[in-house]
Amino acid sequence: MRVGVIIPAAGRSSRFGAQDKLAQDLGGRPVLLRTVELFTKRDDVFAIVVAGPPDDLDTFKDRYGPALSFHGAKVVAGGNIDRWESVRNALALLPDDLTHIAVHDAARPCTSAELIARVFEAAKVATAVIPGVRVTSTLKRVSEETVAAAEDDAVASAILGDFGMAATKGRMVTETISRDQLVLAQTPQIFDANLFRRAYAAGNLEATTDDASVIERFGGTVVVVEGDNRNIKITTTDDLALARAIMGIKSTARVAESYRFE
Fold it and tell me: Which domains does the chain show, CATH number per domain?
């Protein structure tokens, strides 16, 4: 196998807060570099491309460029809106002689070597492979509009006290969805390089949320192998604390500060 890895890192991280989540410290190195390092020691990985924020690519390169270059990774401008734009831009920088192309979330640094090996091994016999974990919680579909208790609802007022009526706002359940045969998709996702390039060249990428859905829309078959519940994606500050716990790392602001965007 000759694998090229794409790491989309152009998201705005709005749910994380004011700071850049990819710059947060994980044992002396930022989240982004921890993620890149997952692939740098694999003999079957021949290229890594990181898609950074297009509106501030120079700053991104200043912060991460030297370390990424040390690992042999290239940087390209990602998309302004959708993930597929970042992947498409990165795809143009990958060499033509690859047999497989993998895509991995920049904010998923806890991925184990065992999981990567499992996914890559499956790609030797399947053209599209993703890891997934079974859904164990009850799923509810809710109404688009919100509802709230009336301002004079004496019962709600008695229960909530000083917390106020706003706390009673919510959405109505419209359906309970069966969790049978449902999985939560993770990354890395890996694909036959020819299939992947043809799927992206075909267009029709709007509203795809991961690369497996691009392949599905193109008519390809995606195989799911066992994922890992520890393979979390850092979206909030709570996720960052969990990632540190999973990796056995104590919190420090040193790296986050040194990689902070101005």
Answer: 3-130+186-258 (3.90.550.10), 139-177 (no CATH)
Instruction: Tell the residue number behind the tokens 């060499």, with chain if given.
Output: 95
Angstrom distance (rounded) from CA 87 to CA 49: 9
pLDDT score at 159: 60
Name which of 152-161, 185-194, 246-255 the model is least confident about.
152-161
**Residue 200 CB contacts under 8 Å (≥ 6 apart), including other chains:** 84, 87, 88, 91, 214
* Res. 12 pLDDT band, cuts 50 70 90: low
Nearest alpha carbon to residue 255 among 34, 31, 28, 17? 28
Question: pLDDT band at 145, cuts 50/70/90?
Answer: confident
- The answer to whether 25 and 253 have CB atoms below 8 angstroms apart is yes
